[in-house]
Design brief:
The complex is a heterodimer.
Chain A (H helix, E strand, L loop, with lengths): L2 H11 L10 H7 L3 H24 L9 H23 L1 H7 L3 H5 L2 H9 L6 H31 L1 E2 L10 E2 L13 H25 L1
Antiparallel strand pairs in A: 1-2
Helix pairs in contact in A: 1-8, 3-4, 3-7, 3-8, 4-5, 4-7, 8-9
Chain B lengths: L1 H47 L5 E4 L2 H9 L6 E9 L2 E12 L4 E9 L4 E8 L13 H4 L2 H4 L23 H25 L9
Antiparallel strand pairs in B: 1-2, 2-3, 3-4, 4-5
Classes of the chains: A mainly alpha, B alpha+beta.
Chain lengths: 207, 202
């Protein structure tokens, strides 16, 4: 598999959210708004690339029997270091993304890719997989965010922390708050997953 | 038997390396993070009580007394705002339990018994829901601007005047609870020793 294929695999064929159905906890929590999805997705992408590369580098050193605790230590240490460095050198960005970073430690996409891909592949391929999976996660979160923000708040792309007021599509009074609440997350995710499966089956049937 | 040793050693080495790196990173980032937080807090004090020129903490004994009183137990620090040697108000730093985190906020109360400002310093409420309590729509609403520190506030769901963030009553209630503790401090202050008590230690 070429690098571009590995990246495409993460975004489309094995999209972590829509195809592997991994990392559901942050997905359901964060997809309230498009900007949250982008923020969480990009932060997770950086961590995925870093942890994938580290795990791939250490794959020959780590014995099979203790690989999971080793991955957990590597990932947790990496995330904490990124968190500290961001807080010290780019405090503005850290204030915006800060809430997502502790969520990433428990995001099972990270451990999932370390186990399923990075521990068996070269560093370059592991990096490509981290990038693809991260972008796939970002796109999926943003897509869910568009639906939930539009119907739940009547706005799109509100990013208060960056001073961007976003676009108001319709009045707040007409928005269905349930879409911004946990039930809305399940409803949206369920419908999108079902829709994608239906689309794929139809496409498969034709060819 | 040899392989068991290998497992232990590899795991121990990785743990030690990770801890070592964390210590190293922490050693040079911690002072920077602390300085940034101190700066942000100083800015926040100016924001909630703009009329003051400088801020002076209450004595540790006074703070300990507040903490042991269940009515004001969430207050972690109080600073008197001083202008030209005279007190113009107080800023209370309060910690209040929200839905998923401890909400840290600053509450400014003027000497003239007016709520001069509220700033949320720290919170990890649900993004997009509870986190909305930091927004101007909630924190600068009319009911808060004209609040009277002589009376506790309540959110609309509890029969009060403060408009809670839709879908985030618990987070909104926590902020209101924090403001109320500052109000209670203000009232106890007035009852204890009358206005101007904060200038007694110079």
């Amino acid at each position: 598999m070429s690098f571009s294929k590995i990246i495409k695999n993460g975004i489309v064929d094995e999209n972590p959210t829509f195809r592997l159905v991994l990392g559901m906890c942050p997905t359901l929590a964060v997809s309230v708004a498009v900007f949250n999805g982008i923020g969480m997705g990009l932060a997770a992408t950086v961590v995925l690339i870093g942890s994938n590369v580290l795990v791939s580098l250490l794959r020959k050193v780590i014995p099979d029997e203790v690989r999971i605790p080793c991955y957990v230590i590597v990932i947790a240490a990496f995330v904490t270091i990124v968190d500290k460095l961001m807080a010290a050198y780019i405090p503005g960005l850290h204030e915006v993304l800060g809430i997502f970073i502790p969520l990433i430690v428990v995001n099972c996409i990270i451990l999932g890719r370390a186990e399923a891909f990075a521990s068996k592949q070269t560093v370059g391929r592991a990096l490509a997989d981290g990038l693809g999976m991260g972008l796939g996660f970002t796109l999926a979160l943003s897509f869910l965010g568009v639906i939930r923000e539009l119907f739940g708040a009547g706005t799109l792309l509100v990013a208060k922390d960056f001073g961007f007021a976003g676009f108001r599509i319709f009045a707040k009074e007409h928005a269905a708050k349930i879409m911004a609440l946990p039930p809305g997350a399940f409803i949206t995710l369920g419908l999108v997953l079902g829709g994608l499966n239906w689309f794929n089956q139809r496409k498969g049937g034709k060819s | 038997v040899r392989s068991y040793w290998r497992l232990t050693i590899v795991l121990a080495v990785i743990s030690a390396a990770a801890s070592g790196l964390l210590v190293l990173v922490n050693s040079f980032t911690a002072p920077k993070i602390f300085a940034y937080q101190a700066q942000a807090e100083a800015d926040a004090y100016r924001q909630v009580l703009p009329q003051a020129e400088r801020y002076q903490s209450l004595s540790p004994a006074q703070l300990a007394k507040l903490r042991t009183n269940p009515e004001t137990a969430g207050i972690s620090n109080v600073k008197a705002g001083i202008k030209a040697g005279r007190p113009v108000g107080w800023v209370c730093k309060v910690v209040s339990h929200g839905y998923s985190s401890d909400i840290k906020l600053l509450v400014g109360i003027g000497q003239d018994a007016r709520l001069t400002g509220v700033v949320i310093l720290e919170q990890s409420e649900t993004p997009g829901l509870g986190s909305e309590v930091t927004g101007a729509e909630f924190i600068r609403q009319a009911a808060l601007k004209k609040a009277d520190p002589q009376q506790d506030l309540q959110v609309n769901k509890d029969g009060g005047t403060v408009q809670a963030v839709a879908g985030a009553t618990i987070s909104s209630r926590a902020v209101v609870h924090g403001i109320n503790q500052a109000f209670r401090f203000f009232r106890s202050r007035a009852a204890d020793s009358g206005p101007g008590a904060a200038t007694t230690r110079k």
